[in-house]
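Hello,

Our lab assistant flagged a job as stuck in the queue for most of the afternoon. It eventually completed. Since we weren't sure the result was trustworthy after the delay, we are filing this so someone can double-check. Below is the sequence as submitted and the structure that was eventually returned. Let us know if re-running is recommended.
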Amino acid sequence: MNAFWPVELREGPVGLRPIRVRDQRVWQDVSRRNRDWLRRWEATVPPPPPGHPQNPRPTYRQMVRFLRAEANAGRMLPFVVTYEGTLVGQLTVGGITWGSMCSANIGYWVDQGHAGRGIIPAAVALASDYCFRTMGLHRIEICIRPENLPSRRVVEKLGFREEGLRPRYLHIDGGWRDHLVYALTVDEVPDGLLARWRGNSGIQSHHHHK
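-- returned structure --
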Protein backbone atom coordinates (compact mmCIF):
# COMPACT_ATOMS: atom_id res chain seq x y z
CA MET A 1 0.00 0.00 0.00
CA ASN A 2 0.99 3.61 -0.58
CA ALA A 3 0.99 5.46 2.75
CA PHE A 4 0.82 8.79 0.90
CA TRP A 5 -2.26 7.95 -1.18
CA PRO A 6 -5.11 8.78 -1.55
CA VAL A 7 -4.85 12.46 -0.68
CA GLU A 8 -6.67 15.69 -1.54
CA LEU A 9 -4.81 19.00 -1.66
CA ARG A 10 -6.19 22.53 -1.94
CA GLU A 11 -5.04 26.12 -2.47
CA GLY A 12 -7.91 28.60 -2.72
CA PRO A 13 -10.11 27.59 -5.69
CA VAL A 14 -7.50 25.10 -6.98
CA GLY A 15 -7.69 21.48 -5.87
CA LEU A 16 -5.93 18.17 -6.52
CA ARG A 17 -7.77 14.92 -5.88
CA PRO A 18 -7.47 11.31 -7.06
CA ILE A 19 -8.81 10.58 -10.55
CA ARG A 20 -11.93 8.40 -10.35
CA VAL A 21 -13.87 6.13 -12.66
CA ARG A 22 -16.91 8.36 -12.22
CA ASP A 23 -14.97 11.34 -13.65
CA GLN A 24 -15.24 9.67 -17.05
CA ARG A 25 -17.94 11.85 -18.61
CA VAL A 26 -16.41 15.17 -17.53
CA TRP A 27 -12.85 14.02 -18.27
CA GLN A 28 -13.84 12.94 -21.78
CA ASP A 29 -15.70 16.22 -22.40
CA VAL A 30 -12.66 18.27 -21.38
CA SER A 31 -10.28 16.03 -23.35
CA ARG A 32 -12.45 16.17 -26.47
CA ARG A 33 -12.74 19.96 -26.29
CA ASN A 34 -8.97 20.27 -25.98
CA ARG A 35 -7.89 17.52 -28.36
CA ASP A 36 -6.23 19.76 -30.94
CA TRP A 37 -4.60 21.96 -28.32
CA LEU A 38 -3.17 19.05 -26.32
CA ARG A 39 -2.05 16.88 -29.23
CA ARG A 40 1.27 18.72 -29.53
CA TRP A 41 2.21 18.08 -25.91
CA GLU A 42 0.78 14.68 -24.97
CA ALA A 43 3.00 11.64 -24.98
CA THR A 44 1.98 8.94 -27.46
CA VAL A 45 3.00 5.33 -27.95
CA PRO A 46 5.29 5.00 -30.99
CA PRO A 47 4.22 2.64 -33.77
CA PRO A 48 5.37 -0.93 -33.10
CA PRO A 49 8.23 -2.55 -35.03
CA PRO A 50 7.18 -4.09 -38.38
CA GLY A 51 5.12 -7.23 -37.86
CA HIS A 52 4.10 -6.36 -34.29
CA PRO A 53 0.46 -5.51 -33.57
CA GLN A 54 -0.40 -1.95 -32.59
CA ASN A 55 -1.76 -1.80 -29.05
CA PRO A 56 -5.18 -0.16 -29.02
CA ARG A 57 -5.46 3.10 -27.08
CA PRO A 58 -6.57 2.26 -23.53
CA THR A 59 -10.14 3.09 -22.57
CA TYR A 60 -10.75 5.64 -19.83
CA ARG A 61 -11.51 2.85 -17.35
CA GLN A 62 -8.30 1.01 -18.26
CA MET A 63 -6.32 4.22 -17.78
CA VAL A 64 -7.84 4.82 -14.34
CA ARG A 65 -7.29 1.19 -13.35
CA PHE A 66 -3.62 1.42 -14.39
CA LEU A 67 -3.12 4.73 -12.57
CA ARG A 68 -4.79 3.39 -9.44
CA ALA A 69 -2.59 0.27 -9.44
CA GLU A 70 0.52 2.45 -9.86
CA ALA A 71 -0.67 4.68 -7.01
CA ASN A 72 -1.24 1.69 -4.72
CA ALA A 73 2.26 0.45 -5.58
CA GLY A 74 3.68 3.82 -4.50
CA ARG A 75 4.99 4.80 -7.95
CA MET A 76 2.47 7.52 -8.83
CA LEU A 77 0.07 10.15 -7.52
CA PRO A 78 -2.58 10.43 -10.27
CA PHE A 79 -4.53 13.63 -9.60
CA VAL A 80 -7.18 15.55 -11.45
CA VAL A 81 -6.95 19.34 -11.20
CA THR A 82 -10.13 21.08 -10.09
CA TYR A 83 -11.02 24.77 -10.15
CA GLU A 84 -13.92 25.79 -7.92
CA GLY A 85 -14.78 22.09 -7.77
CA THR A 86 -14.86 21.52 -11.55
CA LEU A 87 -12.43 19.15 -13.27
CA VAL A 88 -10.18 21.26 -15.54
CA GLY A 89 -7.14 19.05 -16.08
CA GLN A 90 -4.82 16.37 -14.85
CA LEU A 91 -1.58 16.36 -12.88
CA THR A 92 0.39 13.17 -12.40
CA VAL A 93 3.34 12.71 -10.10
CA GLY A 94 5.14 9.75 -11.66
CA GLY A 95 8.42 7.86 -11.55
CA ILE A 96 8.57 8.04 -7.76
CA THR A 97 11.87 6.49 -6.69
CA TRP A 98 13.51 6.20 -3.29
CA GLY A 99 16.96 4.90 -2.30
CA SER A 100 19.82 7.23 -3.14
CA MET A 101 17.69 9.31 -5.54
CA CYS A 102 14.38 10.16 -3.78
CA SER A 103 12.95 11.73 -6.90
CA ALA A 104 9.76 12.07 -8.94
CA ASN A 105 8.55 13.78 -12.11
CA ILE A 106 5.43 15.85 -12.69
CA GLY A 107 3.31 16.03 -15.84
CA TYR A 108 0.15 18.04 -16.35
CA TRP A 109 -2.40 19.45 -18.76
CA VAL A 110 -5.18 21.99 -18.33
CA ASP A 111 -8.33 22.91 -20.24
CA GLN A 112 -7.37 25.68 -22.67
CA GLY A 113 -10.36 27.71 -21.47
CA HIS A 114 -8.79 27.79 -18.00
CA ALA A 115 -5.18 28.36 -19.06
CA GLY A 116 -3.36 31.47 -17.88
CA ARG A 117 -5.30 31.80 -14.61
CA GLY A 118 -2.54 30.50 -12.39
CA ILE A 119 -4.28 27.17 -11.88
CA ILE A 120 -1.40 24.96 -13.02
CA PRO A 121 1.34 26.83 -11.10
CA ALA A 122 -0.77 26.48 -7.95
CA ALA A 123 -1.33 22.78 -8.69
CA VAL A 124 2.38 22.14 -9.35
CA ALA A 125 3.25 24.00 -6.14
CA LEU A 126 0.70 21.93 -4.16
CA ALA A 127 2.00 18.64 -5.55
CA SER A 128 5.66 19.62 -5.11
CA ASP A 129 5.19 20.69 -1.48
CA TYR A 130 3.42 17.41 -0.78
CA CYS A 131 6.28 15.44 -2.38
CA PHE A 132 8.97 17.41 -0.54
CA ARG A 133 7.40 18.06 2.84
CA THR A 134 5.07 15.10 3.42
CA MET A 135 6.68 12.32 1.40
CA GLY A 136 10.27 13.40 1.95
CA LEU A 137 11.39 13.37 -1.68
CA HIS A 138 14.55 15.30 -2.59
CA ARG A 139 14.10 16.22 -6.26
CA ILE A 140 11.28 16.94 -8.70
CA GLU A 141 11.71 17.01 -12.44
CA ILE A 142 9.42 18.41 -15.15
CA CYS A 143 10.17 17.77 -18.84
CA ILE A 144 8.69 20.15 -21.40
CA ARG A 145 8.92 20.50 -25.17
CA PRO A 146 10.98 23.62 -26.00
CA GLU A 147 8.09 24.93 -28.15
CA ASN A 148 5.64 24.78 -25.22
CA LEU A 149 6.21 28.33 -24.00
CA PRO A 150 3.18 28.60 -21.67
CA SER A 151 4.27 25.45 -19.85
CA ARG A 152 7.85 26.67 -19.60
CA ARG A 153 6.61 29.94 -18.11
CA VAL A 154 4.74 27.98 -15.42
CA VAL A 155 7.83 26.19 -14.13
CA GLU A 156 10.13 29.20 -14.54
CA LYS A 157 7.70 31.29 -12.47
CA LEU A 158 7.94 28.67 -9.74
CA GLY A 159 11.74 28.78 -9.84
CA PHE A 160 12.48 25.41 -11.43
CA ARG A 161 15.99 25.34 -12.90
CA GLU A 162 16.52 24.48 -16.55
CA GLU A 163 19.02 21.61 -16.53
CA GLY A 164 19.43 20.96 -20.23
CA LEU A 165 17.99 19.33 -23.31
CA ARG A 166 17.14 15.64 -23.76
CA PRO A 167 17.21 15.01 -27.51
CA ARG A 168 14.34 12.91 -28.92
CA TYR A 169 13.24 12.12 -25.39
CA LEU A 170 9.52 11.30 -25.66
CA HIS A 171 7.24 10.17 -28.45
CA ILE A 172 4.63 12.88 -29.02
CA ASP A 173 2.33 13.71 -31.91
CA GLY A 174 3.92 11.22 -34.33
CA GLY A 175 7.62 11.64 -33.62
CA TRP A 176 10.43 11.58 -31.05
CA ARG A 177 10.58 15.06 -29.51
CA ASP A 178 13.30 16.97 -27.72
CA HIS A 179 12.50 18.00 -24.15
CA LEU A 180 13.93 20.57 -21.79
CA VAL A 181 14.50 19.26 -18.28
CA TYR A 182 13.50 21.49 -15.38
CA ALA A 183 14.21 20.43 -11.81
CA LEU A 184 14.07 21.57 -8.22
CA THR A 185 15.52 20.08 -5.05
CA VAL A 186 13.97 20.45 -1.61
CA ASP A 187 16.83 22.60 -0.27
CA GLU A 188 16.12 25.22 -2.96
CA VAL A 189 12.66 25.90 -1.48
CA PRO A 190 13.10 25.91 2.31
CA ASP A 191 9.77 27.70 2.80
CA GLY A 192 7.92 25.55 0.27
CA LEU A 193 6.74 26.22 -3.24
CA LEU A 194 3.25 27.45 -2.33
CA ALA A 195 4.75 30.22 -0.21
CA ARG A 196 6.97 31.20 -3.13
CA TRP A 197 4.01 31.11 -5.54
CA ARG A 198 1.85 33.25 -3.23
CA GLY A 199 4.71 35.70 -2.86
CA ASN A 200 5.25 35.87 -6.61
CA SER A 201 1.75 36.56 -7.72
CA GLY A 202 -0.97 34.81 -5.84
CA ILE A 203 -3.81 33.36 -7.79
CA GLN A 204 -6.17 36.35 -7.41
CA SER A 205 -3.83 39.08 -8.67
CA HIS A 206 -2.51 36.80 -11.40
CA HIS A 207 -4.58 38.21 -14.28
CA HIS A 208 -3.77 41.86 -13.62
CA HIS A 209 -0.06 42.08 -14.19
CA LYS A 210 0.94 39.82 -17.07
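-- support follow-up --
The delay was a queue issue, not a problem with the job. The result is valid. The longest helix spans residues 119-135. The chain has one domain: 9-43+58-204.
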